[in-house]
Amino acid sequence: MGRFNVQEVAYLSEHILGRLATTGTSGKPHVVPIRYHFDPEREVIKIGGRVLEGRGQERLYIRHLTINPQAALVVDDVADGQTWQPRGILIKGAAVLHTEGGEVLGPGFGPNWVEVVPDFVTSWSIDSPA
Questions:
Q1: Pyridoxamine 5'-phosphate oxidase N-terminal domain location, by residue (predicted)?
Q2: Entry pTM
C-alpha cells in the first residue's frame, strides 16, 4: 500500500458516489456530486462525465481545474442510521484533465475525464460495518 491503507482501499472500492470540490479564479469553492472510479493499482481516482443534451461535457469544475488543477474529494456515508455513525474519506491532490478515454467510465459518458492523484488522504470510522 502506498497512499491508501487496506480499509481505505476497501471503502473506496465499495462506493461510487462522492463530492468533488474545486476553486476557480474567485477562490470560492464549488462542490458537486460525482460518480467516481477508484483505480487501486495506480491509487488514483477517475471521474468521468455524462454527455448532456445542449452542453456536452461542459462543467464548471472542468473550467476550474484548467485554472487551478487542485481538487478535493469526499466519499462518505452513515454506517448505522440508528446511532448516527458517519464515516468517510477525504482525498486532496492534483487533477489531471484527459480528453480521451472517458467513455469507459460509465454509460453515456464522453471522452473527457479527470484523474485525481492524491497527495493527502485522511479517513474516519471506515472500519465500522455498514
A1: 10-102
A2: 0.90
